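Message: A physicist's question: would you kindly supply an amino acid chain plus fold tokens?
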Amino acid sequence: MEQTSALVARGRRDLRRSRPVPPLYLVVPLASTAVVLAVWAAIAIDWLGARPPIGHDWEGYRQGFFRWLETGTPYARFELVGAFHAQYGDFIHPPSFLPLVAPFALLPFPLDGILWVGVPLVLLALLLRRSPWWAYPFAAGLLVHSEMEYTVLNGNSTLWMAAFLGWGLRLDWPAGLIALKPSLGPLVLVGWRQPRRTLAVAAIPVLLTLPLWPDYVIVVANAHLPLSYSLGQWPVLALGALPWLCDRVQPWRAWLAGQVQPAT
């Protein structure tokens, strides 16, 4: 019986491999990839021409880390003494964010910033690599969105949160790392299927930096930042969630196309 089932499964795989690939399945991914490469090439050319400063957010994280080593707190004095308007370069993340920053901050320039942006992009690419052909235009639209450009060029932490979201939707426990950015904290709930592991991953960085949290409470009160300030970066987060959405939509597409029978 087992041999018969194995032969049937092998026959189905061979049949799928022998079927010709519809041109649309190749054209759409290739065209979408070409659009992304063209847009980012134009961004790179524009930057090489004007050379505007980039990496503002990453520089703020790096300075916060070294300020902590030098003074015992990652926060600048003006953040602790009174009200201020958060700007580029201000460290306003919780202290639990420091363990994520530390390995990259210790690297030489410009490798620190390159890997800070490159690692989450690789994590997202690993999630997206098996996307169905019809998902490529959606991914391309998100990759060329202005919020993605800002996030990548400035090294904003939401890029990491998008990677944690994507892998959290797949493995659950990585979602605990989204707690490193409290403005996106509710997304930790995507790890609900493994609550103990997810909560442990969220709690460990907090426990490691617990003495620094009173300063963070003061900074949050002085900055007057709305909890929703990160929601404008939804295209970056949507890129992390796209593979999970594809997995949910694909069976319905197959059923509507008559490729499988609906479950009864």
